[in-house]
Amino acid sequence: MTTEAPVPFEVLVVCTGNICRSPAAEAWLAAGLAGSDVRVSSAGLHACTGEPIAEQMARLLDVAPPRTPARQLGAALVARAGLVLTMTRDQRRGVVTLVPAAVRRTFTLREFADLAGAARAEGVVPAGATPGRALAAVVTAAPRLRPLRPAGAPDDVEDPHGRDDEVFARVAAEIRESVDRVLATVRAPGPDRVGTGPGPLCVTTGGSAARG
Fold it and tell me: Which residues form the Phosphotyrosine protein phosphatase I domain (predicted)?
């Protein structure tokens, strides 16, 4: 008699072009949750379909970049995700407009990091919970955790595409800090500290600008 493998908890990270912010968050989350019951992927609301992660962002990663190139966000991707993380409030609205039923499991990355920290302090995550179950517990507890979030806490991670290396480094650090707080709550070890090496300006294959 064979035992079926458990269904993984799916985390979907969303930004605009799926070439800067969301693949970076995907890479760090996937590295920190490797071998667990969580599967991480990303997509863009206006994706630069088929493009790899922006070179400026790739050079800031200290883990393997996502193998999947940029792809367009679709309702099916949102529907099967247990947690959707966006880079801005506008993107969160875009996800919820596409799939209204996802409203209670869609957050900005920075918001969810704050909620995860509150969940850790409040003992929301059961002892011995797998990372997937821990993330699900934070999602479920989000309505009662929101009042614990600091007033005026930032939600958005700016789009670095077309900007200089300093902006990319700042954005990468913001993403990494949020990812690390999420990983700490689900008791998964995060990767090492992000680097700040410079990289070339990212353009699409055809040389035109895109958004991350």
Answer: 9-185
